[in-house]
Amino acid sequence: MIIFRPAKPGEFNNILHVLKETSVSTNNINSPFNTFIVLEDNSKIIGVAGIEIYRDIGVLNSVAILPAYRGQQLGSGIVKSVLNFADRRNVKKIYLSTEKEEAFFKKLGFKTIDKQEIDERCSESTFLKNCSQKAKIMLLNLVGYFDKPCSHANT
């Protein structure tokens, strides 16, 4: 059975395994602001996504699904789980940086912005501070996101 849930204490090595298996950077995942959502299939962690929360702003990071489980909409599922987690904590905006997955995140409602547009309240985020020159910065306005009939429609 597929389950999305917050990571439990002691699951760091499992999260690290998924990130390494999918070649997603493990730099900065120890941020005290970072919380992970995990995707489980029959008690095995097969996907992860992290979010740093700075008051009412979030930074999505480290989205990864093990290769054997791709193509089943699990990536969008785990991102939506993180968005729901953030929404329940009154987060209003979600930022991310990506080098390869801009189209994927656009389908979920994110828009590409200039790096100068990043809210200064999330300036502590190493995921945004240390992103590469070729990384795209994206933003999602979370207010009302789950009120729409189709939450991934262009916003």
UniProtKB/TrEMBL annotation:
Q: Which UniProt keywords apply?
A: Acyltransferase, Transferase
- Please list the GO terms describing molecular function: N-acetyltransferase activity
UniProt EC number: 2.3.1.1
- Please state every residue range assigned to the domain named N-acetyltransferase: 2-143
Q: Does the keyword Metal-binding apply?
A: no
Keyword Acyltransferase, does the record have it? yes
Q: Which domain of life is it from?
A: Bacteria
The first-level EC class reads transferase
Identification of the protein by name: Amino-acid acetyltransferase
* Organism of derivation: Koleobacter methoxysyntrophicus
Q: What are the leading ranks of the lineage? A: Bacteria, Bacillati, Bacillota, Clostridia, Koleobacterales
Query: Which gene is annotated as encoding this protein in its UniProt record?
Result: argA
